[in-house]
Amino acid sequence: MNDNQRILTDSIVPLFYRFSIPAVLGMLAVASASVIDGVFLGNYVGAHALAAVNLSMPLNALFFGLTLMFSVGGMVTAGKALGAGDHASADAIFSKTMTAIAGISLSLTILFLVFLPSLIGLLGANDELYPLTETYISIFLYFQPLFMTGFSLSYFVRVGGKPNLAGISLLISAIANIVLDWLFIVQLGWGIEGAAWATGISYALMFFTLIPAFIKHSPLFKYQLFQKRWSDLKGCALNGVSEFSNELSVGFTTLLFNWVMISRLGSEGVAAFAVINYIVFFGLMVAYALGDALQPIISTHLGAKLSRRIEQILLITTLHLIVLAVAIIWMMLFEPEWIIGLFLDQGDGKTIEVTRLFISLFWPAFLFNGLNIVCSAYFTAMHKPFHSAAVAISRSLVLPVILLLTLPIFLGDTGVFIAIPVTELLTFILACILFREQKPAAVIIA
Questions:
Q1: What transmembrane ranges does the database entry give (predicted)?
Q2: Smallest Cα–Cα separation from 133: which of 114, 117, 153?
Q3: Does residue 2 carry a pLDDT above 60?
């Protein structure tokens, strides 16, 4: 029995942990590396370096969103084909997905490097933050093609029945990022330039860790450049459009947040938002990891028409998300000074004050954001892209923009801080309504 066939026959709880543990450990490693990135920058370079990296987040979101759109859509399509025993179709989807991602990543990298000054101005950098932002972005752009193709390979590794390999690649990347941060920032004193090189090199290592699984004698998927019916790729992109919309919307919302914070509170406000972003990123990466672990399982079970097992996987995932939410909220409510102290020096008085207020009002977002993310992932795996997009776009674009533009009018700065928690609550209500109509049994019978 091969690894893919075991997805349909293993007991549910061991199956859940076989896929979720590598995914969560890998994403925790990535999240930890990102947080440590912030710790090194905040303590050895300064709060303005944190703000500059935060200004680059919308650009990262665009690259990541495009990667997810094709990778997640391609993965669940390939998973459904594997569940139905059609390996040739799965290989074709893999080939088309990787070709598209390689072409898009190279094109965007060249475009952004040519128009870099205009790009940095669009991201909202003021005179104080412009040089730092330019230094950071100009370096990591060169590594984006390796990041996009490497991260896409990790999705196909999972659906190919090798979740441990995907987790190992993320772990290697994260450890390399931490070690190189220490070397470049602390030991060599390269500042924000060192952070950019550390991140870029760690991206490359993820790619080179995964590529052997696809070029060995018996590859997980067989790549062929020349394909027929490239229109299939449109279906994959459509199925992954919610993930793209979510990331693009997050990028736009971050951009809007940066504009609002820099206009109301200056560079210190953007730095405070950067600290909050690191906390949010850590929690969301675990939720995304659980969603990533679910998708190959659910899509394969969809192909085999096993609705009861899908329901059991969803229940186990929900229980783990509740535990995660309680742990993060406890930290934010009872250990806020410790969290702030990780990133900011005592000399950053104004930034610390803003961050403390931000944390005290932001914590309710974690009651709902993980559940919203996994619900969107579920809809994608069940080939319900419009339902998935409705949840994703609501929580990452429509509601945040509306609330960011209206709440501050009535509540001042407090309105800025509570916009995301209110967004997650309203999105959760929408997700529950949509799920009632699209339960596993109902989708499979239809």
A1: 21-41, 61-79, 100-123, 135-156, 168-190, 196-215, 236-257, 269-291, 312-334, 354-379, 391-410, 416-435
A2: 117
A3: no
